[in-house]
Amino acid sequence: MSDPFGRAIRDFHRGEQDEPLLQLDGDEVNEHPIEEFYFGERTPDQDGTEFLESRLEGPLLDLGAGAGRDSLYFQDRFETVALEVSDHLVATMRERGVDDARLGDMFALREGFGRDRFSSVLAYGTQLGLARSMRRLREFLGDLAHVTADDATAVLDNYDPEYDETRELLGYRHDPTPGLGFRVMHFEYEGDVGDTLLFRLFSPDRLRDACVGTGWRLDEVNRGAVSNEYHYQAVLEKE
Ligand SMILES: C[S@@+](CC[C@H](N)C(=O)[O-])C[C@H]1O[C@@H](n2cnc3c(N)ncnc32)[C@H](O)[C@@H]1O
């Protein structure tokens, strides 16, 4: 399978990236800032770390762990499993010292993990939107409930389509339903064109609705710093 995103990040890690990783929607093109997005080290006093530490505990499942920034931090505190769909990123994480980096699909959790396996879950990077529909989001939440313990927490993020800044994102597509939107884009690297990615964007209120009947309830919403409020992290707790 073509994986320009994972390959470019792996090449960056190995000092072999000669061409930019591009993010495209039609004629719109952005250069994806690999170093800034994926290679900053998480530190205890950094914005957001205290919040995550207050809501996460081991065993932790890091969904869509990328180059392993958060798994590298949390594995020193408690058991952490880093799940990635990209072979290149699993290799990158192992080379960077992630202890338990696994290839797998965050939307097929029951295939990889047993009941009650984790006490907390983190998904950072808006990959949750790749559920693509609210029905698949509910199925994901049901599967997540299955692989987590009774008192588990999950910290999940997305862009909030109620904010103007979200509507300015590359690939944004409007949905007239309050609190919902889409994002469509693909990545290119060294002429290798990735699959078109469809993200479902939903507000915290729509996520609260999606939780009904899945075993989760929305406990808290943590928004980004000033001018970044359109990006939120929602904390789900078991009912
Ligand atoms: C924006 S990156 C975030 C990476 C990392 N969490 C971070 O904050 O640096 C999103 C990641 O989700 C991964 N991903 C996308 N779909 C996935 C799936 N179905 N299962 C597991 N990982 C997935 C991508 O390969 C990518 O590395």
TrEMBL record:
Q: Which SUPFAM superfamilies match?
A: S-adenosyl-L-methionine-dependent methyltransferases
Q: Which UniProt keywords apply?
A: Methyltransferase, Transferase
For this entry, list what GO says about its biological process: methylation
Domain of life here?
Archaea
UniProt-recorded Gene Ontology molecular function terms: methyltransferase activity
Mind telling me which InterPro entries this protein's record contains?
SAM-dependent_MTases_sf
Q: List the protein's name.
A: Class I SAM-dependent methyltransferase
- The scientific name of the source species is Halorarum halophilum
